[in-house]
Amino acid sequence: MSESSRPLSPHLQVYKPQLTSMMSIFHRGTGIALAVGTLMLAAWILSVAAGPEALECFNGFAGSWFGQLLLLGWTFSIFYHLSNGIRHLFWDAGKGFEIETAYKSGYAVLASAAALTVAAVIVALA
User: Fold this and answer.
1) Which of 69, 77, 67 has its CA nearest to residue 114?
2) Which of 10, 33, 102, 107 has the fewest CB atoms within 10 Å distance of its CB?
3) Apex CA 107: angle with CA 109 and CA 39, to 5°?
4) How far apart, in whole angstroms, are the C-alpha atoms of residue 33 and residue 47?
5) How many CB atoms lie within 10 A of CB 87?
6) Membrane-spanning regions, if any (predicted)?
7) Distance CA 87, CA 119 (A)
8) Domains, the chain, ranges and CATH?
9) What is the pTM of this model?
10) Does pLDDT of 51 surpass 60?
């Protein structure tokens, strides 16, 4: 078999996206968002240690629309990663691999992440 007649590896243009594959990609993305959000948390801690002016500067950024958007995304990422991690624990135990169950648990992860994010925002604003 010559080099040019070898089959090409399948790619995203060949396969139709499925809920499980999209959630896997999203899980990785939220992991990155959690790392970035942790940097924001570290910046807040450093601003507290640096004094009132630094804290006021940080609070100004965190209170802006962009800072609020970052905090909302970080909060959703925490709850999505937690919910999907619990789902993976069931998979590690060999449960929930049936297509119907995998889709139901996927939608449950999305719903729980959204509900927990809304609950956290309500508590934060109260």
Assistant:
1) 77
2) 10
3) 35
4) 21
5) 19
6) 25-45, 65-86, 107-125
7) 21
8) 19-125 (1.20.1300.10)
9) 0.84
10) yes
Quick check: 58 pLDDT over 90? yes
Q: Looking at the predicted structure, is the pLDDT value of residue 81 above 80? A: yes
Instruction: Quote the pLDDT of residue 2.
Output: 56
The amino acid at 78: I
Phi-psi region of 64 (alpha: psi -120 to 50; beta: other; left: phi over 0): beta
Cβ atoms 30, 81 nearer than 8 A = yes
pLDDT tens digits, one per residue of 12-45? 667 788 899 899 999 999 999 999 999 999 999 9
Q: Is 81 annotated as a binding residue?
A: yes
Average pLDDT for the chain: 92
CA-nearest of 63, 71, 72, 83 to 39 is 71
